[in-house]
Design a protein that fits this description.
Elements (H helix, E strand, L loop, with lengths): L9 H19 L6 E4 L3 E8 L2 E11 L1 E3 L2 E3 L28 E7 L2 E8 L4 E10 L2 E7 L7 E7 L10 E4 L13
Antiparallel strand pairs: 1-2, 1-10, 2-3, 3-11, 4-5, 6-7, 7-8, 8-9, 9-10
Length: 180
């Protein structure tokens, strides 16, 4: 039984392999929300694990403002989640606390629940990177009545006057490479 000549398509094979690898690389590329982000008084560490975003309180000023008053703290006497509405959670340290719950990617942004340690409340929220900054909008009911906090990429060389930023040891933070 003659099957005819065998035709080889080496260019097609190469093209298909390249397309497959590019698609795989795009899926494995880091999401832009991942990384270290800072505001005037805190640092967040955002990482993605099994399709869930984790937003960790990764840096807190010392002394920190707690209900308008400066509070000094240490590793031995950490800043606690004292404002939590659930009494059993009031003794957990804030540094290293995962603030996100059920945070998943929905089209071009991440959505889920976000815990606010300042108020002790949980809010619906969404986050995305806008013009290089991390934008997190927290709200009750509808985003129209929410509040947005903007975090810039973390600058490990930044100074905070008389305060210092204490970082969570659970992840490796970028380090300042400037010499003075």
């Amino acid at each position: 039984m003659n099957q005819g000549p065998t035709v080889s398509y080496p260019r097609l094979k190469v093209l298909l392999t390249v397309c497959l690898l590019c698609g795989l690389a795009a899926r494995l590329a880091a999401d832009p929300v991942q990384g270290w982000w800072q505001s005037a008084d805190s640092v967040l560490y955002v990482h993605i694990d099994d399709g869930q975003a984790h937003i960790v309180a990764a840096g807190i000023l010392n002394p920190a403002l707690v209900r308008g008053e400066p509070v000094s703290w240490s590793a031995a006497q950490p800043l606690l989640d004292g404002g939590n509405s659930q009494p059993e959670l009031r003794t957990r340290p804030l540094l290293g606390l995962d603030l996100a719950e059920n945070y998943t990617r929905q089209k071009k942004r991440w959505q889920g629940n976000l815990y606010d340690p300042r108020s002790g409340r949980q809010f619906q929220s969404h986050m995305s990177v806008v013009e290089g900054d991390l934008s997190i909008r927290a709200y009750v009911g509808t985003p129209m009545f929410g509040q947005t906090r903007i975090f810039q990429p973390y600058d490990p060389c930044r100074t905070y006057g008389d305060s210092r930023m204490v970082l969570w040891a659970g992840a490796t933070a970028p380090v300042c490479l400037q010499t003075n």
